Amino acid sequence: MPAIVDTETWELAQKLRRVVRRPMEEHAPNPLTGLLICADCGGRLHNRRSDYTTDRNGKRIWPVDTYECENYRKNAAKFVDVCSIHFIRTSVVRELILKTIRRVTEYAKINESEFVAKLRADSEVQQADAAKSHRKLLARNERRIAELDTLFIKIYEDA
Predict the structure, then answer these.
(1) DSSP labels for 24-76?
(2) 37-66 confidence digits (pLDDT tens)
């Protein structure tokens, strides 16, 4: 029976299911949670929301919605220097994503054949990598099956 979804989509869905999204009382969970990576240390960027913060003059700024490096947040209290303090506002991330999507779609409109060729080339590379990893996994599993068969034969001979 053929699969309903392709393997890549399935694996992405499973990865997204593992990411915990905790909605605030008034807010829906942020869809980018667990997908952003810190450029400095490679840790995940966690979404941090609060009702308000204050600026240098003590004026309230409403609301705070940022992404912060998990390694800094976890280790700052322990005085472990894994990563430096930095964050990015969610609105900035969304604007960057939107600009990128617009730029790619504009390029695809203007250079459709070249864009399709690049997509096919990238897809072929990904498929080749996936096939290589699957062949390795298959070989490892076949070795394990042969090892187990040998062990079963030895058990029955000894009995």
Answers:
(1) -SSSPPPTTTTT-B-TTT-PBEEEEEES-EE-TTS-EE--EEEEEEHHHHHHT
(2) 888 888 888 888 777 667 777 777 667 788
Long-range contacts of 3-8 (CB under 8 A, 24+ apart): 7/130, 8/126, 8/130
Per residue in 121-149, is it b (16+ CB within 10 Å) or e — as a string?
A: eeeeeeeeeeeeeeeeeeeeeeeeeeeee
Q: Coil, helix or strand for 18?
A: helix
Q: Average pLDDT, whole number, for the chain?
A: 81
Token pair belonging to 134:
């699957």
- The Cβ of residue 67 has, within 10 Å, a number of other Cβ atoms equal to 23
Q: How far, in Å, CA of 47 to CA of 67, rounded?
A: 4
100 class by beta-carbon count within 10 Å (0-12 exposed, 13-18 middle, 19+ buried): exposed
pTM of the model: 0.55
Q: Structure tokens of 135?
A: 């062949």
Tokens of 24: 């605030």
The burial class, CB within 10 Å (0-12 / 13-18 / 19+), for 119 is: exposed
Length of the chain: 159
